[in-house]
Amino acid sequence: MAHSGESMPRVLHALRTKGMAEVDAVAHAAGLTEDQAGGVLHELGDRGWARYRDGNRAKGWMLLGEGRAEAERLATAEMEASGQRSAVFDLYEAFKVLDPELKQACTDFQIRGDQTLNDHTDPDYDAAVIARLAEINRRVQPIMASLTDALGRFGHYGPRLNFALTQVVGGDINWFTKPSLDSYHEVWFELHEDLLVTLGIDRASELTVDSADA
């Protein structure tokens, strides 16, 4: 069982990468029990580092300015202490090659080529897009394994991606993109954010660099 001193960085990092999440999702990402995660979240709330948003369309815990800054400071310190920055950056570059393919597959699963919403009544069309997802997953899993070797806390992403894919292949297509599930798209987005936070790269800067290289 993690002690409170170990739990705080895990919860901070989980919230930083997720953006907003309920206690159970934070606990899962941080490798803690819900009681442990809940205790840390309330402590963060008492410090003014996080708050619970109870909106009509979105609910969950989210970091505030000081909490976000502390999460990023801890991620940077961990990266530098590991001596694995160069290796992680190279793996991030390999991940970026697959990122537009995943985004396009998600778009194609939701919208047909003529900009018509996919009503999923064409099994051949859906099967073709799911096959693309499976191929992307086949190519990303070695990257996940190497990331885990470099920094152990990346170890949960590979299994989560595999699980989401298994659900989709098994017929539950909600696991492809649905935001309220630990769907393939949601895990992928979280992984991308984790890489950016770990390497200290701003998402807007990443987009600027990518546009310049195009």
Number of helices: 10
Number of strands: 2
User: Which sequence of SSEs, written as H and E, runs from N to C?
Assistant: HHHEEHHHHHHH
Are there runs of 5+ residues with pLDDT below 50, and where? none
What is the total number of structural domains? 2
Distance between the termini: 47 Å
Radius of gyration (CA) equals 18 Å
In terms of structural class, how would the helical and strand content be classed? mainly alpha
As laid out across the biggest beta sheet, the strand order is: 1-2
Largest sheet: 2 strands, antiparallel
Helical residue percent band: over 70%
Overall shape? globular
Mean pLDDT, nearest integer?
91
The fraction of residues assigned to DSSP E strands is under 5%
Please give a structural write-up.
- There is one protein chain.
- The chain has 214 residues and is mainly α.
- The protein folds into 2 domains: 4-77, Winged helix-like DNA-binding domain superfamily/Winged helix DNA-binding domain (Arc Repressor Mutant, subunit A, Orthogonal Bundle); 83-213.
- Helices cover 71% and strands 5% of the residues.
- It has 10 helices and 2 strands; from the N terminus they run αααββααααααα.
- The protein has a two-stranded antiparallel ribbon.
- A hairpin with a 4-residue loop joins strand 1 (50-54) and strand 2 (59-63).
- The protein starts with a helix and ends with a helix.
- The model has no long low-confidence stretch (mean pLDDT 91).
